[in-house]
Amino acid sequence: MTLQQLKYFVEVANSGSIRTAAKLLYMSQPSLSRAIKELEHELQISLFARTMAGVFLTPEGVEFSGYARQVLEQAKLLEHRYFHNKPSKSLCSISTQHYAFAVNAFVNMVKQTDSEEYNFTLRETRTNEIIEDVKTLRSEIGILFKNPFNEKVINKLLHESDVIFHHLFTAKPHIFVSSSNPLASKNNVDLADLTDYPCITFEQGINNSFYFSEEILSIMTHKKNISVSDRATVFNLLIGLNAYTISTGIVSSDLNGDNIKAVPLNVDDYMKVGYILKSGIMPNKQVRMFIDELKKVASQVSTSNLSTI
């Protein structure tokens, strides 16, 4: 097994297509296919499942991918340290529920990156896809929440995916509203106060289970409900329609200005927010920096908004 074989493997895993990977590697498709088959023969495992739609990592391939990426990263560090090569391109892929604080942490991580080249991905996506991304190493890290309602289901899915949840903070539920909304001036709100206002929720696609909802109280019915897929759209609707959404209460004024206010919601519930990592995979430098920034964001939030349970 050689480093070149590992590079071929990772490129195919990233592309999901031998044809696409071959173009990126400037080699013929048959040559790349033969190299992958030789690696599989040497390892005596199937790394990819081959279909008409492309290639997909097998469970053994997912596990091997974690080790292969670590080896390649260490090899780049060795080259830079001992052969004075140009610093290698920094890589990091993140999947998260729609949280402004995650974007804030991402911004801080990028600003601290000293690499001359980098290729970062910040994917705000659905709950089930976050877990799938980390499971298959499409993303090195994911961010989501658990609460008493969804915890058993989420924990089961994490366990089956060989993914570990790391707690960041436990937040009391808040509503986000426009600063011009009459509810913005209240010290706290009851569910009854929300009846006549449109409720904004994030749609979850084909996995639209109550357990995958990004908002607590997902089984409640609302007189007025709008489902969206984009966080910027949420903020526009909060302002344009005097609507509300339910979240952690963490608002980034640096990114969102002072147009959005967080008001505590009087319910007996909480949101345990954390990040997830693939079991047995050591986070790379950029992921560790991102985690440090997440912890800073959490520590800077007012203790009145958070619980340290």
Give the SSE layout.
Blueprint: H1 3-15, H2 18-24, H3 29-43, E1 48-51, E2 54-57, H4 59-83, E3 90-96, H5 100-112, E4 118-124, H6 127-135, E5 141-146, H7 151-160, E6 163-171, E7 174-178, E8 199-202, E9 225-228, H8 231-240, E10 244-247, H9 253-256, E11 260-264, E12 271-278, H10 285-300, E13 306-307
CATH topology of the largest domain: D-Maltodextrin-Binding Protein, domain 2
Q: Give helix % range.
A: 25-40%
- Number of separate helices: 10
Order of helices and strands: HHHEEHEHEHEHEEEEHEHEEHE
The coarse silhouette is: elongated
Numbering strands along the chain, what is their spatial order in the largest sheet?
4-3-5-12-6-13
CATH class of the largest domain: Alpha Beta
Give the radius of gyration: 22 Å
Distance between the termini: 47 Å
Mean pLDDT: 85
**Uncertain segments of ≥5 residues (pLDDT<50)?**
none
CATH architecture label name of the largest domain: 3-Layer(aba) Sandwich
Number of domains: 3
Largest sheet properties: 6 strands, mixed
Beta-strand residue percentage: 15-25%
Give the beta-strand count: 13
* Superfamily (CATH H level) name of the largest domain: Periplasmic binding protein-like II
* Structural class assignment: alpha/beta
Mind explaining what this structure looks like?
This protein has 309 residues and is of the alpha/beta class. The chain has three domains: 3-69, Winged helix-like DNA-binding domain superfamily/Winged helix DNA-binding domain (Arc Repressor Mutant, subunit A, Orthogonal Bundle); 90-168 and 272-307, Periplasmic binding protein-like II (D-Maltodextrin-Binding Protein, domain 2, 3-Layer(aba) Sandwich); 171-270, D-Maltodextrin-Binding Protein, domain 2 (3-Layer(aba) Sandwich), CATH 3.40.190.10. Helix content is 39%, strand content 22%. It has helices spanning 3-15, 18-24, 29-43, 59-83, 100-112, 127-135, 151-160, 231-240, 253-256, 285-300; strands at residues 48-51, 54-57, 90-96, 118-124, 141-146, 163-171, 174-178, 199-202, 225-228, 244-247, 260-264, 271-278, 306-307. A six-stranded mixed sheet has the order 4-3-5-12-6-13, with helices on both faces. The model has no long low-confidence stretch (mean pLDDT 85).
